[in-house]
Amino acid sequence: MNDSFVRDLGIQHPLIQAPMAGSTTPDLVAAVSSAGGLGSLGAGYLEPQAILDQAAQIRRLTDRPYAIGLFVLPDEFVVDMAAVIKAREQLDALMEREGLAVRTSLPTRWAPRFSDQLAALYEARPAVAIFAFGLIEATQIRKLKQRNIIVIGTATTVAEARAWAECGADAVSLQGAEAGGHRGTFLHDVDAAMIGLFALLPMAVRAIDIPVIAAGGIMDGRGMLAAEILGASASQLGTAFLGCPESSAAESWKHDLLQAEDHRVTTIRSFSGRAARGLRNRYVEAMELAVANLPAYPVLNALTAPLRRAAAEAGRGDLLSEWCGQAATLVRPMPAADLVGVLMDEYGAARRSLAV
Ligand SMILES: Cc1cc2nc3c(=O)[nH]c(=O)nc-3n(C[C@H](O)[C@H](O)[C@H](O)COP(=O)(O)O)c2cc1C
User: Fold this and answer.
1) Tell me, what's the pLDDT at 3?
2) Ligand 1 centroid to 179 CA: how many Å?
3) Does ligand 1 come within 6 angstroms of the Cβ of 156?
4) Are 240 and 332 in contact (CB under 8 A)?
5) Which of 54, 182, 321 is the best mutation target for the ligand 1 pocket, counting ligand atoms within 8 Å of the beta carbon and taking the most?
6) Quick one: pLDDT at residue 2?
7) Looking at domain 3-73+111-248+330-354, which CATH architecture does it have?
8) End-to-end CA distance of the chain
9) Lower CB count within 10 Å: N or C terminus of the chain?
10) Quick check: CB of 223 below 6 Å from ligand 1?
């Protein structure tokens, strides 16, 4: 293990709980950080004031280092309103067929402004910032470093890992094709950048000289050690933490993870307009033919928000964006601090059995 990276992060274990926009809570982040891992707040969908409020809650719960994760997006989007009208018709018809009383509406903004979110992150001053979907600018990296915030960039290919290293990131979160949630891909066609973690890790470790964090399909301590043997300095687990009571994933989603079959975990564009890995459920099948004409991220994400909220409230996991990695069925529902303990026990046992 690259002990010095874990030390630089100020944590005890080579374990990062992934930022998961919409599914992390201050309780989850604080529980993981207090247990010696790095808890991360997925703040991609939060307005700046909510970022500050949740950061303050985390601070009240723990004095340990934690991370905030953001999606790198332009502040303004060009929107094809004809596609929006068509998508609303299709979504409204689906909600009517499924007996959900809500309908789509036009939001005041399609997504929070990234530059305002980043300003809130500067103010919140977490120990670590994790970025996905694109690179940030040199001036932004400088401002983060002036505040002693460690910068982690998400990459899905060797070229993206190099791009983050060249732009001054402190480490790269390497997202294998197995990973749950949105693909971080920003330089390539998403389908071409679906590289398995075992192939991607050694290539990225050889290509760049900053620490590499392994993400995608890691559900237990053995997986963490396997990633380390392939050169990772730490592991970033998302799906494994979705089953914790502190995660805000809907109960029906948590339930469906336990039943997940590996061949039903797939790449989905029809919820947000951007490729993400999750369960192939009733909604995904219903929108299969429509997906090619639906608007891109973040427009579709905003349009499906009322449907996703209503589905969660109605206990309809089959209509919800049930994001998860390929090994979802290995999820273990237990409090986050216990999960950190179990993961590290397994990791220690695996090390001893291999005498590494
Ligand atoms: C529900 C969910 C939401 C996610 N949201 C984010 C996010 O907001 N920011 C981010 O950098 N990564 C996000 N990810 C991806 C994780 O950082 C990580 O790459 C992934 O969880 C690793 O694969 P695993 O889920 O199989 O552990 C998300 C993953 C999941 C499952």
Assistant:
1) 80
2) 7
3) no
4) yes
5) 182
6) 58
7) Alpha-Beta Barrel (3.20)
8) 10
9) C
10) no
